Amino acid sequence: MNEETLAALLEKVKEGEVSVEEAVSQMKTLPFTDLGYAKIDNHRAIRSGSPEVIYCEGKSLEHIRGIVRHMLDYKEENIMATRAGRDVFEAIRDVTDEAVYYDKARIAVIKRKEIQKIPGGIAVVTAGSADIPVAEEAAVTAEVLGNSVERIYDVGVAGIHRLFARLDQIRKANVIIAVAGMEGALASVLGGLVDKPLIAVPTSVGYGSSFHGLSALLTMLNSCAAGIGVVNIDNGFGAAYLANNINRINRKGYGEHE
């Protein structure tokens, strides 16, 4: 249940279209439902603006099916499952045929409502094409949360002229996500060229001494360019969620009620 749905229910109570008892019945599972193996946060969209997301790694297919069934029964609009392999997608398809799979992002989305996007959204920039899976997790997440996304891939510092060729396009975004492995220099370079919030995502791409992304993480944390926020290694989802929260501040300017 999101804020809009709750407000509509209370309005029906006010107008006498729904009894207090019926409203209590619909709201009785707030703020969470205990399924035994999972506690579903039914109230999250009201508190934070976005519903709970299903993180699939480590969960059994049976549990994922159960969580999805509950969220569907609870009338959640668009449901997102991250780190979802093809087997997870097929398990979700057992529950609903409304699911769509994004292979590179490893995200399954149950689309029940048209996603309204605002202009001037988020730019997702990668150093190399090997960083695209993490970038796609960020891009798809941001889109499902209601943002317009510009993908700008393979513009790393080894051929920095590629970055300069797309700089005007990058600067048009409200928020920038920089995704890079190896030494992770892309975030520092971009940080010195843009005046927008910049979120850096280190990836586990690189040879042995990159330590599965630790080298890129430390480079980004120690960037001499000011104003860079850094998320964990390969955490495209976390970067997109933070970018969405920043971008939501601009939505009031486009007439959206918060």
What's the CATH first level of the largest domain? Alpha Beta
Q: Beta-strand percentage?
A: 15-25%
Structure classification: alpha/beta
The CATH architecture of the largest domain: 3-Layer(aba) Sandwich
Radius of gyration, in angstroms, nearest whole number: 20 Å
Work out the number of β strands: 11
| Largest beta-sheet details | 5 strands, parallel
| Count of domains | 2
Helix content: 25-40%
Mean pLDDT across all amino acids: 86
Span of the ends, CA to CA: 16 Å
**Poorly predicted spans:** 254-258
Description:
The protein has 11 helices and 11 strands. By secondary structure, the protein is α/β, with parallel strands linked by helices. It folds into 2 domains: 3-110, no CATH class; 118-252, Rossmann fold. The strands form 3 sheets. The protein has a 5-stranded parallel beta sheet. A 4-stranded mixed beta sheet has the order 3-4-6-5, sandwiched between helices. Strands 1-2 form a two-stranded antiparallel ribbon. Helix 4 packs across helix 5 and helix 6 (132-144) packs parallel to helix 11 (236-251). The two termini are 16 Å apart. One of its GO terms (molecular function) is hydrolase activity. Residues 120-252 form the PurE domain.
